[in-house]
Amino acid sequence: MLKIGTPPLITTTLVIINILVFIYGIISNTQNAIISHYGFVPNELFHSRYIGDSILRLFTSMFIHAGIAHIAFNLFALAYMGGFAERSIGKPKFIGLYLVAGLGGAIFHGIISSYILGNGDSVLIGASGAISGILGISAAMGDIRGYYWLAIQVLYVFIGSIASISIAFAAHVGGFATGLGLTKMLIEIERRKRNPYKNFAN
């Protein structure tokens, strides 16, 4: 039985994993090498015949952060919103949607970067897409804070552009849309299971 105040297991685990990866990179002085070898490069996925490594990087890039501000902002959003989303849809769906939203955000960012902006050789790192997916889950489940956090992210991107800080806005948007859309789909599937004849006329 889940007690009030019990930390959400998957959310807490994700926060710890991201922190450990970041600390390891700093302590071992391999942060740049980790980013280079495990960050996602869009052009390597869309313009290469050897995409196996790029597919792996889609996953690994979700757990890499560039600096304190980067990881702090992302993990604060995850810790703040993750518990609600995890409890709302359950642990298996939560981790599944987290990863799929991360993929969705990275791929959407990659499409924009490679085919529109022409900067597909830039490395994408960070949990922004996956965490934006969590915001999308929360929004779909009726928690308006999900939209508030998306607005904060948009503001953060705007400030970053002024300060010449590279922020993957498309990854945020793609992740949020993926989380929101898939959660709404799951809600509809569940609704149809409970009321299989509701949409049929008598």
TrEMBL record:
PANTHER family, per the entry: PRESENILIN-ASSOCIATED RHOMBOID-LIKE PROTEIN, MITOCHONDRIAL (PTHR43731:SF14), RHOMBOID PROTEASE (PTHR43731)
An annotated GO cellular component: membrane
Keywords: Hydrolase, Membrane, Transmembrane, Transmembrane helix
Topology of the protein relative to the lipid bilayer: Multi-pass membrane protein
Chief location bin: membrane
Family statement: Belongs to the peptidase S54 family.
Organism whose genome encodes this protein: Nitrosotalea sinensis
TM stretches of this protein: 7-27, 62-83, 95-117, 123-142, 154-177
Lineage: Archaea, Nitrososphaerota, Nitrososphaeria, Nitrosotaleales, Nitrosotaleaceae
Compartment annotation: Membrane
Domain Peptidase S54 rhomboid: 55-187
A GO molecular-function descriptor: serine-type endopeptidase activity
Signal peptide: none
Name of this chain's protein: Peptidase S54 rhomboid domain-containing protein
InterPro entries linked to this entry: Peptidase_S54_rhomboid_dom, Rhomboid-like_sf, Rhomboid_protease_S54
